[in-house]
Model the fold of this input.
Amino acid sequence: MGHINLKGMGVALITPFKTNGDVDYAALLRLVDYQVQNGTDYLVVLGTTAETPTLTAEEQKEIIQLVINRVNGRIPIVLGVGGNNTRAVTEKLKTDDFSGIDAILSVVPYYNKPSQEGMYQHYQQIALSTQLPVVLYNVPGRTGVNMTAETTLRLAQDFENVAAVKEASGNMTQIGTIIKYKPADFQVISGDDGITFPLITFGAVGVISVIGNAFPKEFSRMVRLALSGDYANALNIHHSFTELFELLFVDGNPAGVKSMLNMMGYIENELRLPLIPTRITTYEKIRAVLNELNIKC
Done:
């Protein structure tokens, strides 16, 4: 049970909302189809990009079921199950139904700033509470603390089902160290679209992507070319996204990618507070870049 192949481009699915603020389940189904049909290798459900903290328990359940049924085993599904209360996370892992889920993605505990030993013990408890492969998720810009290469490697070596890390520290030296010393079957995944290309050249296996929500075909092609060693063609695609990478996050995530999907006709441009849509200036800049790339909007 402890192994999963997360090579390629995973997409951290957004949650579409209607103008009245409800979850737009019909739009979510369209997005899942769009992903599966355009080369996405696996889906990450209820991650940061899904605005998960603003979803009720009922909505979360319904989203999970809907995605599982729609994907119907065609690609793996990774579920975000994390938190800053270790006992609550382990209880959830022991009691919830995980049928149809292939792995869990669990973020470093945020807000309460644990020490490295605290992080280690948190993930130890998680690994012991589930048979599923566990993907560690290091994102210091959101959690307030960085999980060091040493802690990541210790977890990778000590627990059979700690299968991968999504690294979004942006620290190339740290990520390079993890890749150099990791166990053979432990996978390192980029958590940043903008540095996916260089990280693959380091030995990362791919990305959990935000921009893939809007451009699954193009971005998964870039990842596949880079993984196959065709760096010249991969780099061309990487460069064509340079402006979008920046515009994607200037007003926060997932505001940027939601505005792209809105222009492309997939969703309403709605977020749940405390998040708000991108500024008009950003929206117009994104539209100009999409027009340049000949994306219909």
The chain has a mean pLDDT of 96. Residues 57-71 form the longest helix (15 residues). The CA atoms of residues 230 and 241 lie 17 Å apart. The radius of gyration is 18 Å.
